[in-house]
């Protein structure tokens, strides 16, 4: 495996991970609302959930999807339903900054599950593997995943940093509600863009 291929994979991973999407918006929102610990916990779950998905697709799930093409539609609709549910939760949040609110904070498992129902994650996995490892050699799949994991985590961490920065300016419940409603609308909007 050449250094130029690894560099190319890295650039793909950076572009796919850093670009706005549902997981990025929840990373921003959770860190703005609940702080860096909750944000990074969510990001760690999302990064590991994505890599498990990536490896499964790399090791043969893509062939399963080729045999049952309707499965992609089912996964897409389940993903959209889950993302709309998260949008509703975010939109209806009262903005209170009490410690009891941490019970509703996005968790490690929320991050992991979110990647499995996130159409962007499926698209990034399938297109990345198809472009860089069309014959899905095991060593190359593992190498790509090894490159992707830290880039994904750091990219989502950037969104956590933005959330921490914004959170300093949204310390009142009214301002937090405004931020949450704005992010909820963006998240819901991303679902409709998936359908186009």
Automatic annotation (TrEMBL):
Q: Give the UniProt entry's GO cellular component terms.
A: plasma membrane
A biological process (GO) of this protein is: cysteine export across plasma membrane
Q: Which InterPro entries match?
A: LeuE-type
Leader sequence segment? 1-15
Q: Transmembrane helix as a keyword?
A: yes
Any transmembrane segments, and where? 34-61, 68-88, 147-166, 178-195
Give the UniProt subcellular location, in the record's own words. Answer: Cell membrane
Q: How does it sit in the membrane?
A: Multi-pass membrane protein
Which terms in the Gene Ontology molecular function aspect does this entry carry? amino acid transmembrane transporter activity
Q: Name one Pfam family in it.
A: LysE
User: Keywords assigned by UniProt?
Assistant: Cell membrane, Membrane, Signal, Transmembrane, Transmembrane helix
Is Transmembrane helix among this UniProt entry's keywords? yes
For this protein, the record's PANTHER family field holds: ARGININE EXPORTER PROTEIN ARGO (PTHR30086), ARGININE EXPORTER PROTEIN ARGO-RELATED (PTHR30086:SF20)
Can you say what this protein is called? LysE family translocator
**To which species is this protein native?**
Marinomonas transparens
Taxonomic lineage from the root: Bacteria, Pseudomonadati, Pseudomonadota, Gammaproteobacteria, Oceanospirillales
């Amino acid at each position: 495996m050449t250094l130029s291929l690894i560099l190319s994979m890295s650039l793909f991973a950076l572009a796919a991970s850093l670009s706005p999407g549902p997981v990025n918006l929840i990373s921003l929102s959770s860190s703005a609302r609940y702080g860096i610990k909750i944000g990074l916990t969510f990001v760690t779950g999302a990064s590991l959930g994505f890599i498990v998905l990536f490896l499964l697709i790399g090791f043969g799930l893509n062939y399963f999807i080729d045999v049952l093409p309707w499965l992609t539609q089912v996964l897409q609709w389940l993903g959209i339903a889950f993302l709309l549910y998260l949008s509703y939760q975010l939109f209806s949040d009262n903005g209170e900054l009490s410690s009891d609110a941490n019970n509703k904070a996005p968790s490690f498992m929320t991050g992991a599950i979110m990647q499995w129902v996130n159409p962007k994650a499926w698209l990034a996995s399938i297109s990345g593997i198809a472009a860089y490892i069309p014959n899905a050699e095991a060593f190359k799949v593992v190498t790509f995943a090894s490159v992707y994991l830290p880039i994904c985590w750091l990219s989502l961490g950037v969104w956590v940093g933005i959330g921490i920065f914004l959170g300093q300016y949204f310390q009142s419940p009214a301002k937090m509600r405004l931020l949450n409603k704005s992010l909820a609308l963006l998240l819901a909007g991303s679902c409709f863009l998936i359908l186009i």
